[in-house]
Task: structure prediction
Amino acid sequence: MPDTNEPLIFEMSRKGRTAYSLPALDVPAEDEKKLLPAGMVRAEGPDLPEVSEIDVIRHFVRMSRRQHGVDVDFYPLGSCTMKYNPKINERVVALPGLADIHPYANEALVQGALQLMYEMEKYLAEISGFDRVTLQPAAGAHGEFTGIQIIHAYHNAKGHKKSKVIVPDSAHGTNPATSAMVGYEIVQVKSNERGGVDLESLKSVLDDQVAALMLTNPNTLGLFDENIHVIADMVHKAGGLLYYDGANANAIMGYARPGDAGFDVCHLNLHKTFATPHGGGGPGSGPVGVKKELIPFLPTPTVEYDGQKYFLDYNHPQSIGKTKTFYGNFGVVVKAYTYIRAMGPDGLKRVSEDAVLNANYIMQALKKDYWLQYDRTCKHEFVLSGKWQKEKHGVKTLDIAKRLLDYGVHPPTVYFPMIVEEALMVEPTETESKETLDRFIKTMKEIAAESEKDPEMVKTAPHTTPVGRLDETLAARKPILRWKKEA
Amino acid sequence: MKYLPNTDEDRQEMLAAIGARSVEDLFNDVPKEVKFKGQLKLPAAMSEPELLAHLSKLAAKNGDANDYACFLGGGVYDHFIPSTVAAVLSRNEFYTAYTPYQPEVSQGVLQSIFEYQTVICQITGMDVSQASMYDAGTAVAEAALMACAVTGRKEIVISEAVHPEYRAVLQTYIQAQDVKVHVAPAKDGQTDPEKLAALVNDQTAGVIIQNPNFFGCLEPVEEIEKIAHAKGALYVVDVDPISLGVLKAPGDYGADIVCGEGQPLGNPMSFGGPYLGFFAAKEKFVRRMAGRIIGQTLDVRGQRAWVLTLQTREQHIRREKATSNICSNEALNALAALVYLVTMGKQGLHEVAQLSLQKAHYAAKRITAQNGYELAFKAPFFKEFAVKTPVAPEKISAELAKKGILPGLDLAKFYPAYKNHLLVAVTERRTKDEIDALAAGLGGLK
Result:
């Protein structure tokens, strides 16, 4: 990566430079003072930078060269499913007939878009085993919010008063944060020695106050809960519902459907399982599937088909309302739709098979070098620990992660889940070749050896990146959150 | 399979290394009670040429803003997107990156968000910005929740002239919490300050308006600021970012939180998303803001660099005590907004806003010159305005579509009281010919 510091675009500004061109006004000009109240007008534009087009392009291209992405090299970031993003998806979404359509256009003029959404809903329902799906949520956490709202509305409609949501100690932070936003108290259940939900712990917290249990399966340890049907039964008997966090659905396509396993509501992350790019943090899309009895509570509008035309249906009196404007992140849905059509049912099944195979291959190869707390077949990801390196050589998981950067590999997710100390959560995905996996294994073994022979070198890594380790304390203690012109 | 590099031989070697007989063995931990035994009922795989043809066919069934002169608005506008935006967004390093948790190899994304935060502050006149919300609707909802957290109060007053979909999202966000929303009525296309004042009291956490509002009209922003602050409520203003090329920044009339729909800044209309909600505030509220924030710092070599900061507000650290559950945001759309704003620059944004302003007023003049059409409201407007129509908007829409025009939004869709009202938006992309054709088309209807 180039190590020259790139100035901020504001520091490149020169008065009078421009990077835009617009047509001249072709209607008679009116005096602006007559059109707008005097107190509301600003004399000139806001203080944005003044640069030419080449400045803009070189600036961002140079910045991009200081950035790791899936298209640059391996990105085994656990729980994030950093798989390859097919290029046809980008091409399709830019078609004018999909990119340049207004959400309030007459339904007659958006039949193609509505058809795509209608079909996509059916595909996702089939893959997950649910009766209906909404495409409205913009992200995984937003899907959780929509799903928990649906559960809340369901209990209200039944006249049930519920105050709690149960989450396992291995859950993503979004699960408790979401439940809190819907007004629930959070109850945590422990994991057992096999990495699944501890049934005794679950039993002790189940009562008639439980609105739902939120579960990721396979969980954040990459382990499929072997008692899932028992858990579902226990929660249902106590009057609660089951929420499936689909963050890890890449492991199970064609092998298990949360809808068949007793879950009542689920979200899927199109930006994980269905190959849409993460964009440096977004946009995502988090469609939510529900069982039949929860359909009335879905957000509005739904997409319907009357045999001749597709239409938006707002008439759902029990609906939770809207969780987002319009109909969701349509552009992301288009890419995921394209992916599903490219793969077909056999292709999607093979996706999960190869994701699981790749993960187990790396796990087996590294378990003598790094501590593996749960030594059983994993699904699409697994969690190693830097505990041995820390105890023997004072090298922490963070150091191992930073050292990986010197090898051009993005590190795994670190220090999560919290139930494994010094956690290193590895998710290779199915789109990586055996050669890439072998290179990663070799690198991890080398770092284990380096930790023994030259711990200081590992502890001061990275050495080859454009910037070294950052002072995060300084950033938080004296926050500089924007550029300002020097006085 | 082109996205799956493992060959059968690779798979056999890997299975042997693991000590498994078959791939199916790796799924033995799935209890038989829940194992899926059938085949997923999905259409068979398509080759790339077939797939492109299929999607092109679906796309061709839609009427897009290249074939139709788009006068539709309501929060989503057909502004021109400069070529620099696609050039930058197609950089693989940006669009195939994850959230920049490893700053040493994420300076590109981190610096771009820091610059995004800066341009959002520059146009809104605020001190701090976060890295983006999903859209304006969720930004308004997060602003309301933040106002409650800051003030310790539980009531929100929102103008009826705020986008009805934003208000609907707000309602969903607060309905399970102990927060009450009061809607302040509009009169003649503007929020009625007297009626608003009657709803604001010492229980009010925040007063939320939109400027220009859903009807396109400018609000009495200074009067409302006084009402909100007199009772210690936060003043939340949702703005059209393009309007800030000619209109005073909300920071200059006392807003505490400024949010809005970032779509007009370099993002295609894309049938409603993905867009971004921008969200900026006064400095003293920074630790109450939701979502990611990027800060400047130094690395061990003494170089200036950027990093995620103030993370103790967020769900991955604070879990149920976080300011919000937001995790994924709209980073790539925020990058588009940044590239748009630096491409347009100080002069360009001013010019886009002026062109939109002038053309909208020309359109209003031409339309109201037709028999039976008149402006619905007398209040000043920026680029969007409502007209009373002698013909049902539904008919107008259908008839003008035949002439290649999307004439505007039927106001009664959201405000049943405004029967026979059309909301017309005019951006810099609309030509005199298109505006004249719209006016002539409306005038020709019976």
